[in-house]
Each structure stands twice: as structure tokens, then as C-alpha cells.
Amino acid sequence: MFFSIYSGNDDGMFNLDGYTGKLYLARQLDYESKRQYLLNISVTDAGFPSLSSFIFFTVEVVDANDNAPEFVDGFKTINVREDTRNSELIATLSAVDRDSGDFGRVQFAIISQDPAGQTFSIDPTFGKIRVTGELDRETTTFYRLVITATDQAMPRSLSHTTQKSLNINIMDVNDNPPVFRSAPAYVIPSNARSNQIVAEVFANDADLGENAHVLYSLPSGSTLFALHPDTGQLSLLRVLPAIPYFYTLRVMARDNGSEVQRSTETNITIILSSSETGPVFENSLYSGSLSENSSPGTSVFRVAAPGTREDVVVEYYLTGIMSAVIQRGAIFAVHPTTGVVTNRVMLDRETLGDTFTLAITAAEQGGSTPRTRTTEVKLFFPLRDLGGAFKPACARGNCDVRWNISINYYHLMG
């Protein structure tokens, strides 16, 4: 007898031994390409004439977990507004696995986030990514997620996993108002000319683009001063009268956001000064101490400068605050009559630096001519303690680092 495949083997998947009737695979089966074969097998005797018989033989292909999941969503980078609410859907990933049953059932997971945290979550079945933490572009502008798609083959050692990276750009919204960084007071010559630039205010905005473009104005107006809307330069509209010696101006900084505009207002003091000698500060060196976590309003030191005439009262003004070569705005304050300098905010050495330079002006109220004197104050916050050893690192709020402060006065004639 002789065996042969009469039909059903068009792709040549099987070989049949004509003498033994044993059926062999000619190459690897692929469940995903063809799941069933119906072979028409004949057997023929050696007589003359020969006689044949036929039988249909079915081969069912059983699936094996030979395919890994494949991401098909196409997402590599997405943009997300920083005001996106918690639980809001930001993307849906999809993946396919050509296998069947649990071999082809895919589950998703976020296995890492950079920067670290749990800012996002993914539905393991449907691949929906949602925000689960607070977004703030001014703190973090970009996240990278590593996401896996894993089939559910059992045991787990037989499963296949595919990874993909998803980049998330945090888009700016206008959620920050401008913050003034310029001095709260300015000394100008009493003989300043009309159109002369006498001061410059400036504010910065932590947002981006037009959301951070700051415009300046005098909301109450002025007949003596003009404020350039773009540069913040303050100039005189005309020569100032002999009296008064002090002017208070309300200044507004407004951003140019398209959806919403935010603004901040502050008062600045303009102090007139003549060439005559002003008050003389009593000391040339002060020392004190201040804790990094001191509450706002903590007294740092006191300055004193007696007036040059009997009929005057001396007032004190901060005309500059610098640290790390950056104007810091009104993070300190000086009492106008007592000269006591206090911190207006809780100081953070890691953010603000170790040294502050304060310009303090003593100005005489009264008298026939305006007289001032300005001193430069250096506040040193050493990294080393008195024993010369470095302070140990500690979590903010869990330790109380105390610094020595040395204040040197350099007298500047005003």
C-alpha cells in the first residue's frame, strides 16, 4: 500500500511517508496564520488495476504563547496643561497580542516615573492614563513614564512583556502673578531734571511667554512721575518742588496672559536727597544670629543714625536687598522709626544663598533741605559652624540651623 496527501496541503505544511503512513511537519506551524488543516489522505494498493480509498484527516493547531504584545497607539509625547485636574484622562494607550485567550490578553502598568512619584496612573485593562497628583510647570516641566504591556500567560514565567516610554510635557497656564524684585524705596537727587530717569522697578513672573511678560503702570496716576510700561523705568514729568521730601507711589505689575491676566501692586517710596551731609550711622560693625526657619517678623538687628539737626526726625528705608547677585525684593523690612530690621519671609539658605547685602537709607524728616545717608549692610550666613565643621544635612523643617550674622557698614554719602 502507498499513502499520499491528495488535497488540503497546498502550502506544503505536511509530509506523509508513503510506505509507513506517518505524517510529519514540513515546517513550523503558526496558529495566528492558520488554525486548522483538513487533509484528504489516500491509500492505494499495488494490484492491477490498483484500488484506492480516501479519508479526511483534520489537524487542529493549538496556540502557543509565541508573540509579545505590541503597542499600537502611536503615542511617544503628549502635552498636558498644568491645571489638569486630578483623575482627568490625558491619554489612552492600546496594545495587541496576536495570541489567543490569556496568551493574548494584555495588562498595562507604569513601572517607573521620572521625576519619581505617583503623578500618573494607568488602568491595567483599558490603558487609560490619568493625572493622580498635582502638576506645576514651574516645579516640573517634563515627565517620562516607562509603561509595560504584559500578556497573561500562566505560569508567569511564560508571559511576554513589551515596554514603551511616554514623554509628558507640562504646558504653562497663567497661574502665577508677577512678583516685585526691586527695592521698596529709592533715593533720588532733589535737583533731578524733567524727563530724567530716577528709578527702575521690576518684577518677574514664573510663567512662560506672554504669561510672563510683565507690564508696569501707576494705577492711581501721577502728575509728577511717569512709569514706562515695558522697562519699569520711573522718570520725572517735571522738576519736583522743594517740598515734600518724600513721595509714595502705588505701582502695578501685570502680566500679558491671553486667557486671564494677573497683577500685583506695591507701594514704593521716593526719597529726595541733597548734597548736604546726612545722618551718621552709630556703628560700623554689628553681629547677631538668625535661624533658617525663623518665623517672619523675627528681629535681626537694629540700625541707628542720629539726625544732623535738632528739628528733624530720622526715618529708615530699605533701598536694596541682594543675595547671590540677584535682587530679592522685600524679604526684609526695616522699621521706619526704630531701625529694627526683620525678616518678612521664612529664609531658606538653599534657595536664597548665604550672604545678603542690604542698602539702608537714613533720611531726615524736616529741616530746610532733604538729607540722607545710605549704608551697605552685609549679612553673612556661613556654611560652617563656630567649630569649623560643616553643618549636617537635614530635611527642611526637621532641624534648626542657626547662622552667625556679621553686618559691616560701608558709609556712602547721599
TrEMBL record:
Q: Where is the Cadherin domain?
A: 3-71, 72-180, 180-281, 282-394
Offer an example of a GO molecular function term for this protein.
calcium ion binding
Q: Name one Pfam family in it.
A: Cadherin
Residue span of the signal peptide, if any? none
Q: Name one GO biological process term.
A: homophilic cell adhesion via plasma membrane adhesion molecules
Q: Where in the cell is it found?
A: Membrane
Q: Which InterPro entries match?
A: Cadherin-domain_protein, Cadherin-like_dom, Cadherin-like_sf, Cadherin_CS
What SMART domains does this protein map onto?
CA (SM00112)
Q: What is this protein called?
A: Cadherin domain-containing protein
The species this protein belongs to is Pomacea canaliculata
